Amino acid sequence: MATNTRQPIYVNGDWEIDLSRRELRLRGVPVALGGRAFEIIESLVESAGMLVTKEDLMASVWPGAAIEDNTLQVHISAVRRAFGADRGMLATAFGRGYRLLGDWTVRDDDTPLSQAEPSLPPAPLPRDEITTNLPLAASELIGRGDAVRQLRDLLSIHRVVTLTGPGGIGKTALALETARSLLLGAQSEVWFVELMALADPDLVPTAVAGILRLQPGGGAPSAESVARAIGRRKMLLLLDNCEHLIDAAARLAETVVRACPRASILATTREVLRIDGECVLRVPPLDVPALDSEAPTDVLSHSAVHLFIARTRMRNQDFSPRGADMPLIANICRRLEGIPLAIEFAAARAAVLGLYEVATRLDDRFDLLIDGRRTALPRHQTLRATLDWSYDLLPAAEQRILRRLAVFHGGFTLDAAAAVMAPDGSSTVIDGIANLVAKSLVTLDAAASAERWRLLDTVRAYAQEKLTETGEAEGTARRQAEFFLGLLTDEHADSEIDNIRAALDWAFSPAGNSRLAINLTVACVPLWTRLSLLGECRTRVEAALTVLDGATEPRAELTLRAALGMALAYTSGPIDAAKPNWQRVRDLADALGDTEYQLRAIYGLCLHETLICEYRVALALALQFQKIAASASAELPTADRMMATVLHYLGNQAGACEYAERSLAAPLPPDRNLHAAHYGVDQRVGATVQLARALWLRGFPDQAMATAQVAVDEATDVGHANSVCLALADGACIVAILCGDLSAATRFARALTEHADRHALGVWRTYGLALRGRLMIKSQPLEGAALLRSALDGLNDTPFDIRFQLYLVWLAEVLEAAGQASEALTAIDEALERAERTEERWYLPEILRIRGELSTDADYLARSFQLAREQNALSWELRAAASRVRGQHAEPALLGDTLARFTEGFSTADLLAASQLAGE
C-alpha cells in the first residue's frame, strides 16, 4: 500500500497551489481548473521561476502522446483565465516556453492527511491491471472528427463535461470514441457505466461501484462511499444515458468531483446535470447539403451523406449511387436533419426499398424507419421508440407544451407559444420551454435574426401525432390562426410565412373556419405581394373568393380582387380572367368612393391592355390614370411611368424618355415597399428600365447599359423579387443583347432564371427560357430554336402576349444562323404581321430589316431605314443603313453619315461592325 504522504503547498501572497488536493486557491477559495491545466501549474511551480520549455511541458503533462502546440496553448490560456487579474504571473518566452513568476514558498502543514481529507481513504484499494471496460468500436464513427477533438480539449480543461442533445444524435458514440482516444498514452483509467437499464435512482452508486469493482464498505453503496473508494485514482468516468435518473447521476458526479481530485466525469444525457463546474457540449447534427445543392461533388462533401451511403452499403454491397441519385440522398439527409440514428434507419430501408421510396415516404417516417439493429437498445430499435423514451420522461405539463408547439411549422417566438398554450400562463409556458430546451426537445433557431425556437422536424412530426391523439389539434390550430391574424400588420410577419401558411391550410380545411380563412387571406395580401409570392397569392385569393359573399363584404372582395389581378399579370393562367377581374375592382372602388383602388384598377386595366398589345386602349387608360392622379400627386410618377411604357412600345422614344425622366425626378413614395406591392413592381425601377431601352434606341448604347445596371442594382436594394425580374428581363438582358454584349446578357439571364425559380414567378422563367435560346445563336442554334419554341408555347398560358413578337424575331435570327432560311422567313413574317396588327412599333424597323435581308428585298430595307428615322431610333437606323450598303442598295455615304451622328458606344458590336464596313 502507498504511504500517507502529503505533497507541498506553494504560497505567493493570496495564491496557493496545493499539490495534494490538486487545487489552485485564491484567499483560500478553490479556483475552477481542469486537470491538465493544473499539471501545467504543477510543473511550473516546481521549477522555481525557471523557464520550462514547451517540449518539457508537453512531455510532463502528456507523457508518450503526440501533442500539437495549439493544444498546449488552449491549456495555457485556461491557466491565465484562472489567475484573472494576476495573469501576468504566467510569463511567455516567445517560441521557447513559460515560467511562473512570483515569490513562491513552501508552507509547512502538519495536519494529518486523514483529517485534512476525510473523504479520501487511507490508501487506494488493490486492483487488476485492466483500466477500462470500453467496448471496441464495431464501425467507423463518421463525421465526428472535429467533435472528438473539441471534446478531448474540453475534458483536459474541465473535470465535468456533459454531452447533451436529442435522441439519436450520437452522444454515446461520440463519448465512446473520445474515451477510446484518451486511453492512448493517458496513464489513467476510463470506465463506461451504462445507466439506461436502471429504473431506481438509488441504484446509480451501485452500478458505478460494480463497474469499478470497488469495495465501499458495508451496506448499499452511496455517492459518498463510492467517492471515498475511488480516492486519488486518476480516472475518467463515463456515465451514459443519465436523463431518466438525472438527479441521482448529478449527485454522484458532483460528489466524485468534489472528493476525488484526479477523477473526471463525462456524462451523456438529454438533460444537463446542472452541477457546479459542469461544461456542456451540445452535440450537433451531421452537416447536410443545402437546399439548392444537387451537384454530386457538393452533396458528397457532407458528413450526413457519408453516413447514409456507408450504412446503406453495409446492408447492400451492390449499392453504388450515381449522380442522378444525389438529389434524393441530399433530400433524405435534409429531411432527417442530420440525425445519425434516423439516417441509419433510412439507410437500412433504402438498401431494401430503394432511394425513391424512402425519399417520398418520409412524411410517414415513424412507420417507415423501423428497421433498427436487433442488438440495439430498445429505445434505438425504431424511430418512434426513440421519441417515446424522451416523451414519457416529461411531466404532464411539459408533454402538453411539446404537443402544442407542433402546430408551428417555421419556428416560434415566446409570444406565439404563449398564444397557443392558452389558458396556461405565460410564465408557465416560458418555464416549460426552458425545460424542453434543457432536455434537447426544443432548440434555439440559430438561423433566425431574432430569438426564435423550433422543434426538429422529426420531433415535430411525433408531437403532431400526440396532438391529434389527445384531441387538442383543432383548438391549438385555431389559437395559432388567431394569433397570426393579429400579427400580420407587424413588420416582422415576413419571418412567419411558414406558420401563416399552416394557419391558412387549417382555416380552409373542413375542420377550419371560413370567416377566419377570409380574414387571414385579406391580411396576407400585403405580405404576399411584398415578397413577390404571386403564385401563392393567386391560389389563396381564388380559394377565398369562392367562399366570400361579395354583397355583404365589398371591402374584402375589393382587396382580394386587386391582389388577384396583379397576380394574374405575372403568373401563368387564362388571359380572359384578368380584364373582368380588374373591371370588378373598378366597380367596387367607384361604389365605395375609394380613390386609391380606382387608380389601382385603372393601372391594372392598363397593364392588361399593354400585355395583350392593345396599346391605344392602354394609352387612353394611362391618360385617365393621369387625370385622377392629379388630385393625388403622390401617384403622378406612376402615371408618368405608365405613359413612358406605352409610348415606348408605340415607337415614340423621345416621349418615352421624357416621361421616364420625369418619373425618376419625382420624390420616392413614403413606403416604397408597400407601393411596389400595390402595383406589382417598383415604379422607379420600371421607369429606369424604359429609359434604358429608349436610350439604346436613340443611339446612346453606353448610357443604356449603365442605366440598365442601375435598374438591377436599385431593384436588388429594394428587395422586391418581381421588380428584380423586371429589371433583368426587360432591361439588362435586352439592352445587353442589343449592344452585342453576350457575356453580360448570359450573366443577367442566369440571374433572372435563378430569381424566377426561387420565387416561383413562372412568367419570368419563360422569359429566361427564351433568353437562353437567343444566346445559343452562335454555339448551338438548333437547340436554341427548340428553347425559343418552348418559350412561345409557354406564352400561350400567360397574359404576356407582349413578348410573342420579340420571341418570333429571336427565333428567326437563330433559325437563320442554323441555316434554316425558309423557317426563319416564316417566323419573321408572323412577327411582322403581329407588329402591324397590334401597332407594337418599337421593334418594327428591325423586323423589316431582317425580313429584307432574308428575302434580299430592298423595299423592306428602305422601309426599315425610313421608319427608324421617323422614330428617332438611331440604333435601328444604323443597322438598316449597314444592311442597305452591304446589299448594295444604297451609297456608302449613307452609312458614314449615320455613324457620324453617334457620340458614344464606339466599342459596341454594331458600331464596330459598321465602322469596319464603312472603312471597306
Please tell me about this protein's structure.
About 60% of the residues lie in helices and about 5% in strands. It has about 900 residues and is α/β, with parallel strands linked by helices. Among the domains are: about 10-115, Arc Repressor Mutant, subunit A, CATH 1.10.10.10; about 145-280, Rossmann fold, CATH 3.40.50; about 295-385. A 5-stranded antiparallel sheet has the order 4-3-2-1-8, with helices on one face. It has a 5-stranded parallel sheet with strand order 10-11-12-9-13, sandwiched between helices. A hairpin with a 4-residue loop joins strand 2 and strand 3. It is elongated and about 115 Å long. The protein starts with 8 loop residues before the first strand and ends with a helix. About 50% of the residues are buried. Mean pLDDT is about 85; it is low at about 110-130.
